[in-house]
Amino acid sequence: MNFQINNLDKNTLINLYKALLKPRLIEEKMLILLRQGKISKWFSGIGQEAIAVGVTLALNKEEYILPMHRNLGVFTSRDIPLYRLFAQWQGKASGFTKGRDRSFHFGTQQYKIVGMISHLGPQLGVADGIALASKLKNKNEVTAVFTGEGGTSEGDFHEALNVASVWQLPVLFCVENNGYGLSTPTNEQFNCQNIADKGIGYGMESHIIDGNNILEVYSKVSEIAEDVRNNPRPVLLEFKTFRMRGHEEASGTKYVPQDLMDAWALKDPVVNFELFLKDQGILTDNEITAFKETIVNEINEHLDIAFQEEGIISNETNELNDVYQETIYQDIKSNSEYKELRFIDAISESLKQSMERYNDLVIMGQDIAEYGGAFKITEGFVEQFGKDRVRNTPICESAIIEAAMGLSIAGIKSVVEMQFADFVTSGFNPVVNYLAKSYYRWSQNADVVLRMPCGGGMAAGPFHSQTNEAWFTKTPGLKVVYPAFPFDAKGLLNTAINDPNPVLFFEHKGLYRSIRQDVPIDFYTIPFGKASLIREGNDVTIISFGAAVHWALETLDKNTTISADLIDLRTLQPLDTETIFASVKKTGKAIILQEDSLFGGIASDISALIMEQCFQYLDAPVKRVGSLETPIPFVAQLEAQYLPKTRFEIELNNLLKY
Ligand SMILES: Cc1ncc(C[n+]2csc(CCOP(=O)(O)OP(=O)(O)O)c2C)c(N)n1
After folding, report:
1. Cα 119 to ligand 1 centroid, rounded to whole Å
2. Which of 43, 134, 212, 305 could form a disulfide with 83, with the two C-beta atoms 3.0–4.6 Å apart?
3. Rounded Cα–Cα distance for residues 373 and 419 (Å)
4. Is 464 one of the annotated active-site residues of the chain?
5. What's the pLDDT tens digit per position in 366-393?
6. What count of other Cβ atoms lies within 10 Å of the Cβ of residue 40?
7. CA dist., res. 148 & res. 179, Å (int)
8. How confident is the model at residue 55 (pLDDT cuts 50, 70, 90)?
9. Does ligand 1 lie within 6 Å of residue 156's CB atom?
10. Closest alpha carbon to 568 in 532, 603, 594
11. pLDDT, position 106
12. Do residues 398 and 376 make contact, with C-beta atoms less than 8 angstroms apart?
């Protein structure tokens, strides 16, 4: 192995050696504990330590690193007390996730480490967001993110590199090419010589680095990182290495040819560096033994602490209280004059006033800058707030939602506009797995609002008409807002942006230009979880939200003899069950109208809640009305048949007659 000392002094060389030794010795201990049945699962990074250790030591401690499951060296090189790591792996309270997530699936702001989620790729886009924050705040910091070569096949990799390059973000994309993704060899994973070759396609500088050579890793990454701090840009680094053990311990290495194993065993990063240092007269056998002893003692002491710690005692309230970051609702009333606004203008005003209120709030979306967005909601924003804060994005829903998460990690709020709510599917994974679960997993909030222009009635076909709130209302960790009037839209969007949790804000496109209302000129808020009772009556409770509220109103205007409570839910998560139950107890009959197809929609849950809580008050079965169980069709007459507007009137009258 070709070790080049360059200008590294003796102290640095010894520190590199000790840092390299530590994860190796921890792993050796873990493998023993695994055999003794004292720990459950282990993803070994033996043979790859030089990458995690070298990259981490090349960065400053305040720079974020986003490691993977084989990067123990990142955690040890940031000097995390070992008992906390051990407690994390044992699911104990001194760990980082209160027993809610396992192994390396955690982050810590204290050590500026953001761990992976199981899906591998999403953290690449999160790194973009952290790097964007660093660039916007002129911090001259670099962010390093890891992936295996298997993970580079995911769309997240492509999107994250593309966004980083287009925006020239200071990210080091560190690919550990260790030969196998679980059992899949590289030639079944990608069809090019080197992963680094992909750099040119993204307009990105790339390097191939010997991942088993700590000096090469440390020196090259130090040099590149320093250059990137001063001249922000992404760099793709391919570290050639090899996975010496199974994907995880139980899975073995039968599929790896022995000669490959033998060849890479000769390149062991720890053994070779140790020999080199001895050879150079920098370390003696006695010193090496002493270093090892010190680390082994530290491991044993910290293991004792972790083993002695009591297991977590489950407590339902604790768990439920940690799904969302506590929000102190800022009740802001406006004494200003009112002016008549269309639904769309109310949203635009909220965004504009929030941009003024939070001077680092960032809005991202396709075509939202000079063009003003598909619906012109952000028209004129670039002139007022500049392109740094009003960001046109490539068509990379995943990477942009991940970047929003990264911004939140770095303390910046963001609003992401989905061009159409339908397209959130292309960023579904980060929404339901990253944004939704982050606070619960490691107390990191996702201060992100996703704006979702949705809904049918405009003959826009199956992919520009869906109202897909039900995909999200069932995912703990997300808040879901769905206003029907301009006044509510402005006040609730303001609250959504104030709220530190991830909020999906549904805006029915059919309301944009058809519904007008007097709305305060100044900034004001409306609390989440408070429905509005917009008609009062005694015979039936109608529960609805979004455009369907207007269909219910039309029906009531047409049938003036019907005496009904009409509840506009306004927010679906949290849901105002109090208002629903109070009304149903009064009227004894309930009908829920939703625009989405019926099965699995929120109407079903509301119906179930009413039956559970108000059964003795009911004079009839609860009725749900929704769209047909088909995708939403294009042609007007098919769409009209699909949507529940006419069926609602019939069902309402049937219920009243029951
Ligand atoms: C989206 C997704 N698909 C599949 C998996 C299962 N899985 C976990 S790790 C892994 C292999 C990853 O290979 P690579 O990225 O090369 O990293 P390595 O494990 O070699 O370090 C697979 C297939 C997963 N976790 N997430």
Report:
1. 7
2. 305
3. 8
4. yes
5. 999 999 999 999 999 999 999 999 999 9
6. 13
7. 9
8. very high
9. no
10. 532
11. 96
12. no
